Amino acid sequence: MRKKLVSLLLVTAMSVTALAGCGSKxxxxxxxxxxAQSITFMAPDWAVPTDEQLDEFTKETGIEVVVNEVGWDDIxxxxxxxxxxxxxxxxxxxxxWSWVGEFYAxxxxxxxxxxxxxxxxxxTLETFTKDGKVLAIPYANDYRLxxxxxxxxxKAGITEEPQTWEDVLxxxxxxxxxxxxxxxxxxxxxxxxxxxxxxxxxxxxxxxxVYNEDGTLNEESVTEALKYMETLIQEELVDPADKTSSGxxxxxxxxxxxxSFLTGPTSFVSRSTNPEECSVVGQITPILTPGKEGKSExxxxxxxxxxxxxxxxxxxxxxxxxxxxxxxxxxxxxxETNSAIPTRNSVLEELINDDKIQxxxxxxxEAKLISSPFPDGIPSYYAEMSNAMYNAINKMALxxxxxxxxxxxxxxxxxxxxxxx
Amino acid sequence: xxxxxxxxxxxCLLVFLLLTLGPFVWxxxxxxxxxxxxxxxxxxxxxEVVTWKNYLELFGGSRKGQLLFAGIANSLKAVGMTLLVGIxxxxxxxxxxxxxxxxxxxxxxxxxxxxxxxxxxATIIPLFRIFVARQLLDNVFWLSLVYVSSYLPMITWxxxxxxxxxxxxxxxxxxxxxxxxxxxxxxxxxxxSYPIIxxxxxxxxxxxxxxxxxxxxxxxxxxxxxxxxxxSEFMTKDSIQYGLTAAAGIITVIPPAITALIFRKFLIxxxxxxxxxx
Amino acid sequence: MKKKILPYLLLTPMILIMGVLVxxxxxxxxxxxxxxxxxxxxxxxxxxxxxxxxxxxKSESFWYSLQNTVFLLVLxxxxxxxxxxxxxxxxxxxxxxxxxxxxxxxxxWALPPYVNGILWRFIFYPGYGxxxxxxxxxxxxxxxxxxxxxxxxxxxxxxxxxxxxSIPFMALVCLAGRQSIPHELYxxxxxxxxxxxxxxxRITFPLMLPFIGIGVTSTSVTAINVFDEIVALSGxxxxxKNILVESYLxxxxxxxxxxxxxxxxxxxxxxxxxxxFYLRSLNKEVEY
Lengths: 421, 278, 288
Fold this sequence. Notes:
Chain A has 421 residues and is of the alpha/beta class. In chain A, 47% of the residues lie in helices and 11% in strands. Chain A has 2 domains: 38-140 and 304-342, D-Maltodextrin-Binding Protein, domain 2; 145-300 and 376-420, Periplasmic binding protein-like II (D-Maltodextrin-Binding Protein, domain 2, 3-Layer(aba) Sandwich), CATH 3.40.190.
């Protein structure tokens, strides 16, 4: 028995070396071939079109699309590594709004041509424009919209929709004191990107300004927003768990029924009607985001877009693909297949009117208020800035810093970053 | 006294099972809990309603399911390739370093051992550049070669330890019989080395299964992406699906678990000393 | 003549692999670390000597991360070694299902670190995660405990998670060491009338020591390179970051390749100090 095993192992061990040699040759030829009319498309799972849709594109244009599905967080890392090696990871890539600044500074994106007509219909395009150049075209919309749980509000004796941030605060206090909801306000406080954007939209909807012309923080506006957050934290109107659980979990408290008010992603319009995700279906109404003396006149968008990489060897084909992907017709289809929220207001309007998007509430109205809080486009140091912001907010949430100290901490870093440029 | 000993053993056994399997059991419970009940404020350990949705989705041929199983296949492929390339090279190096006298032996041996402490981060960017320049990205063979480079020190060291327990007389006798070095290696060392080879193979299997950073940069196309990356992608940005991730996590452990169960005898036998009798 | 070449010939594949895939890259990374190289300033890459290192050593953030790294290293090393040795002694007890127990013990090792982090996040979830459910259920606390909100508890939780994953290898190596000890030694000791603690101190422990050495080496490397678990548990927050997270953030998030490479080199330097220390113990031979 033992001898058999031994000889078997011997044979494998010997053949192994030979095999390994062969393997290298066989594998070496793969992956290096590229057809002229074929492009690669790197995107997260929610952006991948169906096979039928892709076939249609190929039939129409003769361009074949190879989809490379990569996790959203990993796309940027891959893009960075590839670019450091002077390579394109793909011809067409996902571009998140927060990446635009650095991608532009690093010169990784090919400027795209967009007609004025499209520009007017796509308010989020502004976010992807730097120095007058359009660097990517948004395909999935996401802007800050507010939601409240009407049933819980009524139970606490509040019949009116909140108009201002002061209203929201009062309502939350009532919800808490009447024992209706323990922690009525859902907001991200964990040390992560979502927390940065929470501070941004809060300051932006309160005062219409977040950053000064030179890229530094607007002290008055941001401090006011930080103090508002501090109040929420101190009065425990937010769940203490949200200080360390992920921002998405904090948002999801709305659909879980443990929070009554949220300003958050547009995706909650559909989430709030899906019984698998939501335990309070029918109770949530999307409303315009509050402001200081009435509804806010602006809202912030956090869209995702597609761009063509500078290193691409098939730029023309890649541009055609982006154009096709973001066309009005495709946006309708992608809403149906991928539940993507269209970036063209005309398409959004059509979908809401046709009842394709249900429980839309103030969704369309809010979309028309989209505007960018960055006076000079997204800065190239966005990642480092955001890191400083969310860490300061998180420290404030954990009671290590006061609102003033938190402001000072982020302001010092951002002033340094803005000055370096 | 005997009764006490038995009770003590059973107690230890229970603690061991609880601590080792507890997290898996909890992951399983989460995987059958409906999404909105997951964060509910209750101390109930089991969900009120059980849902098999996550498993149905993964096994039902959905895109996510396909990706997961493709990932498992990719991981297995990488394991196979790493073994094919790694084991012979480790054997050769271990034999040479433990049994041959030559200039620089100690230096090479120490240099090899010290590379154990090099983090992936220190090599990944230049590696990527090499891979790009030679068009080796998304290629299982070259990916495996990188894995081999990270296991070589530990495995070679374990193997040479094993070889050093093989009596010198055995070798000398063979040499007198007129056997060359190669024949000595093939006829004497290989036959009695199967325990360490299997032990090393299991270590390589488990470590390859866990690779994340290296394949993320060097081989993340659908055709080469390992299961660890696939599972991590179930949890990105806005689409956090805890239940699905937990279910996928459990499925991920199955292949190495089965392998460990089958080869359980060899988990440690190769690393033991004095197991070789002359 | 032929004899002299043969060893080198046999080592060629190993030397080639290590040279091209390890030594060349770390040399290249070193050269990056001496440059001002920001991806967001592609036209301004230039040599700056050791400026990156000086800047890092001056920054508070680095020393904070270093403290975390050292804290994790100590905790993980002690935890893994003690529990690993205990587990190996437990697994050494012969029962009918010893083999199966061994396979079960290996399970945590089979879990990719990132998945492992996610798994434990469910357990130490700040709201109603498993740990809080249990504690509240048993009436030990009435409000959910926020596990991840202070530096030390967070690092403590990270250590638990890493220890859980590193125990199997440690236990396996130690078990191999334990079973290598000849029975005759124990029999002789028994005849001499030695008691259990004495046997452990005089025979078991010293003879297992070299094996524990392998485990300690491998665990230290793991502990210095903890990354996935931290990210899965607390993201890229300042609170729990170690040097590796710092290096990742600098390189891949802030796109400063020069400085990021320098941080990586400092991690390596730390690891190398340990490495040299271990080399000496690894090279020792055991006599029974």
